[in-house]
Specification:
Structural class: mainly alpha
Number of strands: 2
CATH architecture: Up-down Bundle
Radius of gyration: 22 Å
CATH superfamily: CDP-alcohol phosphotransferase transmembrane (TM) domain
Strand order of the largest sheet: 1-2
Mean pLDDT: 86
Largest sheet: 2 strands, antiparallel
Order of helices and strands: HHHHHEHHEHH
Distance between the termini: 73 Å
């Protein structure tokens, strides 16, 4: 047996790491449960299931790094679980909640409804594929495009909020028909979103920020759909705003450098 065949055989019989992949399975299960709950018409349970999936998704990668159990299998499995939980599940939830009823306004509106949901799901798939292909040299401070869990939060918490408020009429459906493909477009965009990867357990934070964390938790407990949707919408808006700020900052720095170069040339001439 050659060395290459021996390595291949060893890889097949090595197995998988239990704990991080168990958490990833939890993400997959939560996404699947969210779909089933949406089909049954229980959109609050769907939203809570996806909220749990988002929490678990934030744990599995860190758990793998902390325990030294990162693997190619784990990376691919995580992407597939994310596609179900944050790509397919939100699309089905918003479609079952309201987009399917657009058909009541005419045949073409029915097609627009499922097309909006499909655009979101396809965008999530492309976003995850692009993320896996990105080189490790990318700036870790920013995500390129809205992360799929954040897009799922925007769409799913919107449904939760509308359900909580009892809004299910034409205006609510029209809003959902715009927000759903827009969330998809943000996922495949080149807008930069802050990743918060620089914030670690030993990072020093201001007292104001330290007070804001428990305050946010209390607000979420008091009015979950309102606060969570506001947070998701705020993060979605932050991408274009941050990109514009960084572009203007870079443009200003370039202009300053050109001015300094011109002044130096004048002095030497």
């Amino acid at each position: 047996m050659t060395d290459a065949n021996h390595k291949s055989s060893s890889a097949r019989h090595k197995g998988i790491y239990l704990f991080p992949n168990l958490v990833t399975t939890g993400v997959l299960f939560a996404g699947f449960y969210g779909i089933v709950a949406a089909i049954d018409g229980n959109y609050v349970r769907s939203a809570v299931a996806l909220l749990i999936a988002m929490v678990l998704d934030g744990i599995d990668g860190r758990l793998a790094r902390l325990t030294g159990t990162e693997s190619e299998f784990g990376k691919e499995y995580d992407s597939l679980a994310d596609l179900v939980a944050f790509g397919v599940a939100p699309a089905i939830i918003v479609y079952q909640w309201g987009l399917v009823r657009l058909a009541e306004y005419g045949w073409i509106w029915g097609k627009i409804g499922w097309l909006a949901a499909f655009i979101y799901a396809a965008s999530a798939a492309m976003r995850l594929a692009r993320f896996n292909c990105m080189p490790d040299t990318n700036d870790k401070r920013y995500f390129e495009g809205l992360p799929s869990p954040s897009a799922a939060a925007l769409v799913t918490f919107m449904v939760w909020l509308w359900t909580d408020l009892g809004w299910s009429g034409g205006y609510a459906m029209a809003f959902a028909c715009v927000i759903t493909p827009l969330a998809g477009a943000l996922m495949v965009s080149h807008f930069k979103f802050y990743s918060f990867k620089e914030v670690k357990s030993d990072t020093r934070i201001s007292f104001t920020f330290a007070l804001a964390i428990p305050l946010t938790i209390v607000l979420v407990m008091l009015a979950p759909p309102k606060v969570l949707f506001a947070m998701a919408a705020g993060y979605a808006i932050s991408g274009p705003a941050l990109t514009l700020y960084l572009y203007r900052k870079a443009d200003s720095a370039t202009g300053t450098n050109e001015t300094d170069t011109g002044s130096a040339e004048d002095l030497t001439s």
